[in-house]
Specification:
mainly alpha, flat
């Protein structure tokens, strides 16, 4: 198969995309992903160039007008000093933290943490956060502060956002900005975007926009990609673009693919298209496979996309997936595709996979496919696996497969395995190693399989 078309030239590109709101999807938590990418962001430091120099706007050629910067409002209270019962609240927090630290069971600890967060009155949330800000940092304290802040954002996002901006620079401030952005974007995306855009330039603004964009990507991936245009180019932004594009592909894969083809950065181009092809593979593996073969450069990204497509395809139409995989030109990609096809197909239906392999003509990928089948059969039907392994034409690969079968057979039926090993063409040193293995399971009763005994 050959590549079609050519890559677009570097430079700004414009693409019109319908701006209608995408359907709502099941909410997925994104805290772990955001913690990772924000950590990488801080390690990498700010970049001068933005993502807009490498990718086209996904929604409209017209830029949204940025709202004027808003100054934080006056806080409703000044922390513990304004709370008449601050000492009681401090005592409750100390008792709760002691109980959490004493709990060794992670599940019970999580339940206790949730209960403690909910036990604090809404009016006391800013006071509680001020009190915790003066404690020595620990994982439990950080988790409690994050839970209280997220709850406050749910009740009054603007007040919580103003409180966060009074924190000193550092990791705690960045984590708090992320917490505000995630919760607020889940409630009111437009307001959260406006708030993130008026944050101080640098880590604050970049981290806030990144968090808002990840939350937006779940339901409005095009909006998330538009926000990515405002962020510095680099790892965290590329991760966001890839994730948002895959979410877009789950809704309208053809539109997402047409947009991604215009990305001028080669590495990002292939990475995003691989994510789109993978997401598309579940609904239309033929279209997804064509995209992967025709539009992604040969290499790891293309290999991963094709393997993922085959894995999804074989669940729906194993014969169709097999016919597609055998059309690949000889090489590592064909071998990888056939190996994954046979392994998954054997798990699903060993008899059907074996029948298909019997009709496979010797040639490129043949030995890899036969070897994959023998490996899957070996733990349950070692006798049948030996027949398939002996049909492998490549001698080194054949000996490797026979050795693997010997190990699996010794674990299930040592007496039968020893009789077979003694008569194999394996090297004497390999035979001695296998015969010295200790059985891992009692001898099993004979089991029949329609998979047969090989070619």
């Amino acid at each position: 198969m050959t590549k079609c078309g050519s890559r677009p030239q570097r430079g700004p590109l414009l693409l019109q995309v319908t701006s209608s709101r995408l359907p709502q999807k099941l909410i997925i938590g994104s805290g772990l992903m955001l913690a990772t990418v924000l950590g990488l962001w801080r390690l990498a430091g700010p970049r001068d160039s933005s993502a807009s120099s490498r990718m086209p706007p996904p929604a409209s050629a017209q830029e949204e007008a940025h709202p004027p910067a808003a100054s934080p409002g006056d806080p409703a209270s000044r922390g513990a000093a304004a709370a008449p019962h601050a000492s009681l609240l401090r005592s409750r927090l100390e008792t709760g933290l002691d109980s959490l630290q004493a709990e060794s069971n992670p599940l019970r600890q999580g339940n206790k943490l949730a209960e403690l967060v909910q036990s604090i009155a809404g009016a006391d949330l800013p006071v509680a956060l001020d009190l915790l800000a003066h404690r020595n940092p620990s994982a439990i304290t950080r988790d409690l502060k994050a839970g209280l802040l997220r709850r406050w954002v749910g009740d009054d996002p603007r007040a919580a956002a103003d409180w966060v901006l009074r924190l000193p620079p550092g990791s705690d401030r960045q984590s708090a900005i992320s917490d505000v952005a995630i919760v607020w974007a889940g409630q009111e995306l437009t307001d959260a975007i406006a708030w993130a855009r008026q944050l101080p330039e640098g880590e604050d603004r970049n981290g806030g926009l990144l968090s808002v964009a990840y939350e937006a990507a779940r339901t409005e991936p095009v909006q998330a990609l538009n926000l990515a245009l405002e962020l510095p180019a680099g790892g965290p932004t590329d991760d966001l673009i890839t994730y948002a594009a895959s979410q877009w592909a789950a809704q309208t894969p053809d539109a997402a693919a047409q947009w991604a083809k215009q990305i001028t950065d080669t590495a990002l181009h292939d990475r995003v298209l691989a994510a789109i092809a993978t997401a598309w593979g579940g609904a239309d593996p033929v279209a997804a496979g064509t995209l992967a073969v025709d539009s992604i450069s040969p290499g790891r990204q293309q290999d991963n996309a094709i393997v993922s497509i085959v894995q999804r395809w074989v669940q729906k139409d194993a014969d169709g997936a097999a016919a597609w995989a055998t059309q690949f030109p000889p090489g590592p990609l064909r071998d990888t595709a056939l190996q994954n096809l046979v392994q998954l197909w054997t798990d699903q239906s060993p008899d059907q996979a074996g029948a298909w392999l019997k009709g496979l003509e010797p040639g490129p990928g043949y030995d890899v496919a036969i070897g994959a089948y023998a490996t899957k059969l070996a733990p349950h039907w070692p006798e049948a696996a030996t027949g398939w392994a002996e049909a492998i034409t490549d001698e080194p690969l054949r000996l490797v497969e026979l050795e693997d079968i010997g190990e699996a057979w010794m674990a299930s039926d040592a007496n039968a395995a020893r009789a077979w090993i003694a008569n194999t063409p394996l090297p004497e040193a390999t035979k001695a190693r296998l015969l010295a293995l200790t059985p891992l399971a009692p001898a099993r009763p004979p089991a029949a399989t329609a998979a047969g005994s090989g070619q």
